[in-house]
């Protein structure tokens, strides 16, 4: 059973920083892609940042402020968020494309989400 667990969300003032973590656990053979999506109230789930083979891609709205990184030995991904704005508020979901042990295919997995609230 593969599981993604996020942590690190919270309440922060405008201009502040937070660091999110996502730990993938279970019988994992390979992870090809990991990323973060966020969902603001009343909106759909939008891409924030993804990393594939060490190459990051960012939404335009977070470029220069957010940094995505991974610790492959720990199957853990991080999102360093700086200069936070109220519009960054939302439920942040961890996302992974991975192949479980015993499986021949890659599948998409999601975490349960962690709330980030930026006050003005």
Layout of helices and strands, plus pairs?
Elements: E1 3-7, E2 10-13, E3 18-25, E4 28-39, E5 45-52, E6 55-58, E7 66-71, E8 76-81, E9 90-100, E10 107-110, E11 114-119
State the distance separating the first and last CA atoms: 40 Å
Structural class: mainly beta
The major beta sheet can be summarized as: 7 strands, mixed
Residue share in helices?
under 10%
% residues in beta strands: over 45%
Tally of contiguous helical segments: 0
Number of strands: 11
Concise account of the structure shown:
With 120 residues, the protein is mainly beta.
Structure description:
This protein is mainly beta. It contains no helices and eleven strands. The strands form two sheets. Strands 2, 4, 5, 6, 9, 10 and 11 form a seven-stranded mixed beta sheet that branches. Strands 1-3-8-7 form a four-stranded antiparallel beta sheet, with no helix packed on it. It is elongated.
Keywords, please?
four-stranded antiparallel sheet, mainly beta, 120 residues
